[in-house]
Amino acid sequence: MYKGQHERRDRLVKERHHDTYKGRRKCASATLCMNCDAIFVDGRWTWIKGVESIKKTVCPACRRIKDNYPAGQIEISGSFFERHQHELLNLIRNREKQEKEQHPMERIMDIGADKGYAMITTTGVHLARRIGEALAHSYQGELDFQYGDAEKTIRVSWKR
Ligand SMILES: [Zn+2]
Questions:
Q1: CATH number, domain containing residue 138
Q2: 122 C-alpha vs ligand 1 centroid, how far in Å?
Q3: Which of 109, 112, 140, 149 is the most buried (most CB within 10 A)?
Q4: What pTM was estimated for this model as a whole?
Q5: Helix (H) or strand (E) holding 154
Q6: Which residues form the domain of 39?
């Protein structure tokens, strides 16, 4: 093999290596959820991409979903809800999308809707409260919420 060939190969290897790690940030303390790809970095859960993490776990939100152990419960009822169910449930799903983008641990677990009644469960207390407030803000009605377990759980009810 000629000297020149060696050099060319070294350069290729280097470039390939460089490409693989382009844009990645090494962070030894980062922890990745192997279920949803949320990543715990600098003390909070985020959706940051391209952080190389060594530690893997199942995040609290995924654990709550798996164990069916909600932090928030929202009860919705009334004839107004029955007439506008589709629209209201859309508003709720949009609220979740916004919240989840900023706070990966705030998610809807389940929406159980029947005629004029819905029970929605969430992984976080903030989302449950935000949903109640969004309904009251857009459609008035009667909003009520009650924290339990040192503010680790919340029951929200909205009626119209
Ligand atoms: Zn997860």
A1: 3.30.70
A2: 14
A3: 109
A4: 0.81
A5: strand 153-159
A6: 3-58
